[in-house]
Specification:
Layout: H1 7-42, H2 44-68, H3 71-80, H4 87-111, H5 113-117, H6 124-138, H7 141-156, H8 160-168, H9 170-183, H10 194-217, H11 234-264, H12 270-286, H13 288-306, H14 310-344, H15 350-382, H16 387-398, H17 401-411, H18 417-451
């Protein structure tokens, strides 16, 4: 990160940060995409099982990764104030925090997940696949969270290209392990859909090992003195939790409502479950665009706010939102034209392809709403405003999505589509609430700047 003097310099810096994050996010979401697509080609029953498992896994995992992502604005503010010597200490506190959170998530997966999956009316074969998938996936909890901390460090330092290169390793690793374990290639036991969970875990363990080597060999990081042993500092842990808990809670509120809808789909047929999850999976892949804008905004805004250059932060906000709209125009057009082709990536049954394509049509409205809402979340994190956005997200997602969806399901014959309509409306409401909050925060900082002149 560095100070910019004009709009052109800001645009160049923003794009330098954004594009590596975008590629990184695509690689990140590709793990779920590969699991779903390869399992779908194996058979629909296993796909339904993996779908149910990810509906339970995603909310809790994203909650914890949201907590450790608080490292980005913390380091951003240090750099903006010229306190680079504080970076290593905060990094190690978040490593300790990630290890503790890993134990929590592991316990939840091992003890709660089987109980939930066996009591929501799933077919026995589907529930069995889901439980085994989660058990295998839990092997990778520690490297998943530790890598999230390393990535947050690299991103906050503006080294997004380095984290991109690391994450690009995930796709071939995950695909290779999945091929071996799902289909039983080269004498490896055939595990079916559950093998996708083990494949992802093994891929992340390898990725973590490579990342640690890079961390201590990278010339640009040697000035941080990461090789020095830093003991646990509970004050910094508390600060990280104080800032990260609302971030994780906001992400959890959004992802959990999608997952609850996925679990509600258990009352429909295996075909509907598989089609719903396939469309939702591709929507998540497309979410990489607004999510990348959000992450880039958190980096640049936190840096400028830390340096008390509030007008510069405002300029970046405008650049980020326009970038989001431009990319949305391309992605929405692409998905509308090729929705049938996209559906065929997940299976070859004509009924499955037709139903998935219909769900993908609804996902166009998801992406439009996310284009507006997701960047706002990153901007607010850049201002270190996380508590109120958490409550706004809770209201927008849970106060709207399920009630509206249930109402549509009861009063119309839309069936499974009712729940997509509820989700779309909740995203629109949440975006409006975040926009209101940003207006309040920006006015507050503008008043603060004027009072100090």
């Amino acid at each position: 990160m560095y100070k910019t003097k004009c709009l052109r310099e800001k645009l160049v810096l923003f794009l330098k940060i954004f594009f590596p994050i975008l590629i990184y996010q695509f690689a990140n979401y590709s793990a779920s995409f590969v699991d779903t697509a390869m399992t779908g080609q194996y058979n629909t029953m296993d796909l339904a099982g993996v779908s149910m498992a990810t509906s339970i896994w995603n909310p809790f995992f994203t909650f914890l990764t949201g907590i450790v992502s608080a490292l980005v604005p913390i380091i951003g503010h240090h750099l903006g104030r010229g306190k680079k010597e504080e970076v290593a200490s905060d990094f190690y506190q978040f490593i300790y925090l990630a290890l503790g959170l890993s134990v929590v998530l592991l316990g939840m997966v091992l003890f709660l997940a089987p109980t939930i999956l066996n009591h929501i009316g799933l077919e026995a074969a589907v529930a069995a696949v889901a439980v085994r998938y989660l058990w295998f996936l839990s092997i990778g909890i520690i490297p998943l969270l530790l890598f999230s901390v390393i990535r947050s460090l690299l991103d906050s330092l503006g080294l997004t290209k380095l984290s991109m290169y690391l994450m690009l390793l995930l796709l071939p690793l995950n695909s290779g392990f999945n091929y071996l374990l799902i289909y039983g290639a080269f004498g490896v036991p055939e595990l079916g859909g559950a093998g996708a969970g083990l494949g992802t875990s093994l891929a992340y363990w390898v990725l973590l090992g490579i990342s640690v080597l890079v961390l201590f060999k990278q010339e640009k990081l040697k000035a941080l003195h990461l090789e020095k042993r830093i003991l646990l500092n509970m004050d910094k842990i508390k600060e990280g939790v104080r800032l990260g808990l609302p971030i994780g809670g906001t992400v959890f509120a959004e992802v959990a409502v999608f997952s609850v809808v996925g679990l509600i789909m258990a009352k429909f047929s295996s075909l509907i479950i598989a089609s719903h999850q396939s469309a939702m999976n591709f929507s998540s892949l497309m979410y990489a665009f607004p999510m990348s804008i959000s992450s880039a905004m958190a980096i640049v805004v936190s840096y400028e706010v830390g340096a008390k250059r509030f007008d510069d932060a405002k300029t970046y906000i405008g650049l980020g939102r326009w970038t989001a709209l431009i990319f949305a125009a391309f992605t929405l057009t692409f998905l509308y034209i090729f929705r049938g082709n996209v559906a065929s990536l997940y299976g070859n049954d004509p009924k499955f392809i037709d139903l998935t394509a219909r769900f993908l049509t609804y996902s166009l409205f998801f992406q439009l709403a996310d284009t507006f809402a997701a960047p706002l979340q990153g901007i607010l994190r850049g201002y270190k405003d996380t508590v109120i956005p958490f409550y706004l997200g809770l209201l927008g997602y849970w106060g709207v999505a399920i009630p509206v969806a249930t109402l549509f399901d009861s009063l119309t014959d839309f069936g499974a589509y009712s729940y997509w309509i509820g989700l779309i409306i909740s995203l629109i409401v949440s975006g409006a609430l975040y926009r209101w909050r940003l207006t309040v925060i920006m006015k507050r900082f503008e008043s603060l700047a004027k009072s100090k002149r």
